[in-house]
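Morning!

This is the sequence you dropped in the shared folder:
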Amino acid sequence: MYIELLKATILGIVEGITEWLPISSTGHMILVEEFIQLNASYEFKEMFRVVIQLGAIMAVVLLYFHKLNPFSPKKSLKQKKDTMDIWFKVIVGVLPAAVLGLLFDDWLDKHFYNYQTVSIMLILYGILFILVERHNKGKTAKVTNFRELSYSTALGIGFFQVLSMVPGTSRSGTTILGAIILGTSRYIAAEYSFFLSIPVMFGASALKLVKFGFNFTGLEIAILLTGMIVAFVVSVLSIRFLLKYIKNNDFKAFGWYRIILGLLVIGYFVIFG
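The structure's back. Tokens below.
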């Protein structure tokens, strides 16, 4: 039992770090699962991989509770309206993934959840991050706060999020990259990506739980809760790190990291696969 909880702890750490940094949690999970396999059914492991994200998403809820709470008595009427405006833009941004995700999620997982796809996407989006940052060097962002974020831009970012359905792209990576391409500052791109994750992850987790059913063993509950709690704690640290980092840095370092990881994934499976 203790070994399984240790495995869940390690997986929670990986999830908490990679979910928010634009480096692909799937790519890291594929590598980590080559060395750390939960002693559980395939169905449980498939569900665990998604539902562990609930722990990560609660970190966003905690850190941004006041900013995202339209009913806070500490807010003026105008501030409450601004908060509702953020939520409306989040809903608009979620629509493309909600519709297309329900239609193609299982098919994409079945046909593209493999190291070849993941490694290619890691490298491709790594190159894109470097190219976009070089192109934008010295330019001033058009959108520096949520009032300036139009609904059409929010929808456009939502379509970029759809690309993250392909394993290895990274949900935060596609939304941040898309937001920057559409003219937002890195800070707004990161925060909007965090906010989009709330309904997306809750929805994905709910679907996986329903598909799995609720007939958990005591050990399965312990494994799931451990992974979620660890992912929550590590996510708080990861989000704070990213927001501090991008105040003075761009995303090129993450681009190079993705390229290196993609090459490592290819090398590992060619040699040992």
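Headline: Residues 2-272 form one domain.

More detail when I'm at my desk.
O.
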